[in-house]
Design goal:
The chain is mainly α. The chain contains 4 helices and no strands.
């Protein structure tokens, strides 16, 4: 998906991470895991909130492809910087 490639490139992350939403959610933005992870990137509630997504009874931005991609890649960048890999 071009949006994934653009965001990953902009944030200096490995382009191969573009496959993560395919593995995690089968590219389904409304996918929900048994643990409660939601969206393309399968973000947990706490992670989504920590990364600035609005999650309440009216909206769940983990299901928004653009917003969740920004949040997920911010989180992955944080982890990548922390662990160097």
């Amino acid at each position: 998906c071009p949006i994934f490639e653009e965001v990953l490139d902009r944030k200096g992350l490995p382009i191969e991470l573009k496959y993560l939403p395919i593995v995690e959610s089968a590219f389904n933005p409304i996918a929900v895991s048994s643990a409660g992870a939601t969206g393309l990137w399968q973000l947990m509630h706490g992670t989504g909130k920590m990364m600035g997504l609005d999650i309440d009874s009216y909206a769940d931005e983990r299901r928004d492809p653009k917003l969740s991609t920004e949040a997920a890649t911010d989180y992955l960048k944080k982890l990548y910087d922390m662990y160097g890999d």
